[in-house]
Amino acid sequence: MQANMGNADRIIRILVALGIAFLYFTDRISGTVATVLGVIAIVFLVTSTAARCPAYSIFGFSTRKDSSG
Predict the structure, then answer these.
(1) N or C: which end of the chain has fewer CB within 10 A?
(2) Is the pLDDT score of 15 beyond 50?
């Protein structure tokens, strides 16, 4: 699987996931909202770690700069 996420995209996703975690652990969000945002945070962390987003692949989109030139 080829990476299709650039560094800026990965950093933004990690920061969003950390922000969601902060809101959860400080009891700013709870219930269904916390569950939905928690799932989104986990997906953001996994895709950032893998540098690959399945949704980008479906639409043929990439934020990764080509390293060959």
Answers:
(1) C
(2) yes
Is the Cβ–Cβ distance between 41 and 17 less than 8 Å? yes
Name the 3-class secondary structure at 44.
helix
**61: CB partners within 8 A, 6+ apart:** 4, 55
| CA nearest neighbour of 50 among 8, 20, 10 | 10
Domain ranges of the chain: 7-49
Q: What is the structure's pLDDT at 69?
A: 41
User: CB within 8 A of 31, min separation 6: which ones?
Assistant: none
pLDDT tens-place string over residues 33-65: 999 999 999 999 999 999 999 999 899 899 998
Q: Is the pLDDT of residue 2 over 90?
A: no
